[in-house]
Amino acid sequence: MADKTTGEILLALKARAGDPSLEEIARAGGWAGKSSIQVFFNRAYDRPLGGSVALKLVKALEGRGVPPIQADDITRLAAVAPVANASAPFEFEGASLYRMPRDLPVYGAALGAEQLVDGEAVELTTLNKSEVIERRERPPILNGKKDVYALYVQGSSMDPAFDDGDLIVVQKAGSVSVGDFVVVYLRPKDESDDGETATSVLIKRLVRRTAQYVELRQYQPDITFRIARDDVLRIDKALRLGDLLQ
Question: Which InterPro entries match (predicted)?
Answer without folding.
Answer: LexA-like, LexA/Signal_pep-like_sf, Pept_S26A_signal_pept_1_Ser-AS, Peptidase_S24_S26A/B/C
